[in-house]
Design brief:
This protein is of the alpha/beta class. The protein is built from eleven helices and 14 strands. The protein is globular, with a radius of gyration of 20 Å. The mean pLDDT is 96.
């Protein structure tokens, strides 16, 4: 029997990416999709690429009762009420928003200007980058799906952080994302004339993903980790490239660093550690659940440089959410995610 899945917020970019991926999942029936903005319309009216592939009518928010798992793809502050309903109905929930990412209610309020209304729900949730946190899954009914930048950064830094070779307070992260990372809502900086043939940082040292990044890295290190994080907006639709710099304790070389990363990710299908001399390129992960990592070392400064790239809509959102769903239901983690990146 197939898992019955529903999507709340199906017409956002991450939501419709879930539709695309779930329709090809061999173990899933996409049972219902909802949208407040487009209730009553067919999802193929909103996204014509789905015509005669998925012509499901967009319902209101009351789709939980007919599903085994609900994906919420909503702005922050809106997911708790659905988590509560899912819990009452015995339905699993995977939240692609920010509401179940931060452990600290105070940090959530500081960065998102919202408060946790249902604190008990957060005790029953798990923040899960599968490659780093799957061992912590003990049947929690709510999964907080990580953000796109934090995913690329955590995967790029985990082996080094865990090994203890990173000099404290030396991490500088330069990340670049396509405009889909900003969501479907209209904004001046993602307006075509402003982002086309342009390139600039934004929210310099003040991006909301900073506490999520530091929380994940601190748990890996077993101590507080602070970073300098600067995101940039690329004039393209999808993809993230994170270039990560840090000073190394003692001395090392690129070959040693790469061997450490290769060993750390030896059993991970979706993390590809590239050969020395190769540089991770977002073109090679587009439309897939892969994270490509290239390792570099600057002998002059004794500084490592790690380049980590993902598709922000797949490994950074919908694909990772499906990977988490596969964990919940005991499926192979690559089920429904065997998409080969296009060559160009």
């Amino acid at each position: 029997m197939k898992i019955k899945a529903g999507i709340i917020g199906a017409t956002g970019y991450a939501g419709v990416e879930l539709v695309r991926l779930l329709l090809s999942h061999p173990n899933v029936e996409l049972k219902a999709v909802s949208s407040v903005s487009y209730e009553g319309k067919k999802i193929s009216d909103v996204y014509p690429n789905l015509k005669e592939i998925c012509d499901m009518q967009l319902q209101n928010e009351e789709i939980i009762e007919v599903c085994d798992v609900i994906f919420t793809s909503l702005p922050h502050g809106l997911s708790e009420k659905f988590a509560k309903k899912c819990l009452e109905k015995g339905v699993k929930m995977i939240d692609l928003g920010a509401d179940f990412r931060l452990d600290s209610a105070e940090e959530y309020t500081k960065w998102y200007n919202k408060t946790y209304e249902e604190l008990a729900l957060h005790e029953q949730s798990l923040y899960c980058i599968p490659e780093l946190h799957r061992g912590l899954y003990k049947g929690q009914p709510i999964i907080g799906n990580p953000g796109c930048y934090p995913t690329s950064i955590a995967l790029g830094l985990a082996p080094s952080i865990k090994s203890g070779i990173v000099v404290d307070n030396s991490i500088v992260i330069d990340s670049k994302s396509g405009v889909t990372g900003a969501g479907r809502g209209l904004a001046d900086n993602t307006h075509y004339p402003n982002c086309n043939e342009a390139f600039s940082p934004y929210k310099v040292a003040s991006h909301r993903h900073t506490p999520e990044i530091e929380q994940t890295l601190s748990k890996l290190a077993g101590k507080n980790v602070n970073v300098t994080f600067v995101p940039h907006l690329l004039p393209l639709n999808r993809g993230i490239v994170s270039t990560i710099y840090f000073n190394v304790v003692g001395k090392t070389d690129a070959k040693t660093l790469r061997a450490m990363y290769k060993e750390f990710y030896k059993d991970e299908k979706f993390v590809r550690v590239l050969d020395l001399g190769e540089v991770a390129n977002l073109r090679n992960v587009k439309f897939s659940n892969y994270c490509d990592i290239s390792i570099h070392y600057d002998e002059h400064t004794n500084r490592a440089v790690v380049v980590s790239t993902i598709d922000n809509m797949v490994k950074g959102a919908a694909g990772q959410a499906i990977q988490n769903m596969n964990i919940i239901f005991g499926l192979s983690e690559d089920s429904g995610l065997n998409y080969i990146p296009p060559a160009f």
